[in-house]
Design a protein that fits this description.
8 strands, eight-stranded parallel beta barrel, TIM Barrel
């Protein structure tokens, strides 16, 4: 069984807060940070007591160029040494076939040493297998963006299933090592309820709480089952709407935000 599944099984509680690490340049400047590593380490230090899972969004690290990559390597080294029990998700939504997909999997697991990575399944099983043969993957299924239905909700005339249901079928057929999960957005609670009710035990990564409009209480009710739910909040925990004057105020905001989400999870049990 893969490392990330072992770690998530040890958490015991089915609903877990995941802190998204999104070093958006303009947002960092608003709160007084110029250095990516400094901000990442500040966010992790202020949330480590209240979360077991961190998700690193590659796009925002890449936006910083080489500084972003160097900061990502540095922060991963830091957290892997100081908090080895944490689950680290590499959110790069990698996808390709053959040797290229294999290279992506090697990069995510051998170089960056993430516990698990997100994968785009729209090249079929070939895009999933190199990851499932290693640590596993969390596969995009029903994503949180407004336009996701343009493709994911198309119904096949042959099978009468939606595209996202076809993705679930592919994932189930390739989950021979029991190390695959699904990404299901918090902005579509009815689809989430249907997916969870028909796939009781598979882990779900649920982004879209807060900033994208997902309601935590509604989502927690829809996701009830025997599988683990990774409830991701990125900007909702990291970036305040009101102006922050100093790092002490910023720390207070972070703690208040993550404690509030944990309280919602506790009340949903």
């Amino acid at each position: 069984m893969s490392n990330w599944i072992n770690k998530i099984n040890e958490l015991k509680e089915y609903n877990q807060v995941c802190v998204g690490i999104d070093p958006i340049p303009n947002e960092l400047k608003k709160i007084g940070f110029e250095d990516v590593y400094e901000w990442c380490s500040f966010l992790i230090e202020n949330t480590s007591e209240f979360t077991s899972i961190y998700k690193f969004q590659f796009a925002y690290f890449e936006e910083w160029g080489m500084h972003g990559y160097e900061s990502l390597r540095k922060i991963l080294n830091y957290i892997q040494k100081k908090f080895p029990e944490k689950i680290l998700i590499g959110d790069g939504k990698r996808s390709d076939i053959g040797s290229t997909a294999d290279a992506y999997a090697k990069a995510m697991y051998d170089y960056w040493q993430f516990d698990v990575a997100t994968v785009n399944p729209y090249l079929g099983s070939d895009s999933i297998t190199p990851f499932s043969e290693r640590n596993g993957a969390i596969i995009l299924c029903k994503t949180s963006n407004n336009s996701s239905g343009q493709l994911q909700n198309i119904i096949s005339q042959k099978t009468r299933k939606t595209i996202y249901e076809a993705v679930i079928e592919i994932v189930n057929n390739n989950n021979i090592n029991d190390n695959l999960g699904l990404v299901v957005g918090a902005t579509f609670p009815e689809e989430l309820r249907k997916i969870r009710s028909e796939n009781l035990k598979i882990p779900l990564l649920i982004p879209g709480i807060g900033y994208q409009g997902g309601d935590s209480k509604l989502i927690l009710d829809a996701a009830k089952g025997e599988g683990y739910n990774i409830i991701n909040s990125s900007r909702g925990i990291s970036f305040p709407n009101a102006k922050i004057s100093n790092k002490s105020e910023y720390s207070d905001f972070i703690l208040k935000s993550i404690k509030s989400l944990n309280e919602d999870i506790y009340r949903s049990r």
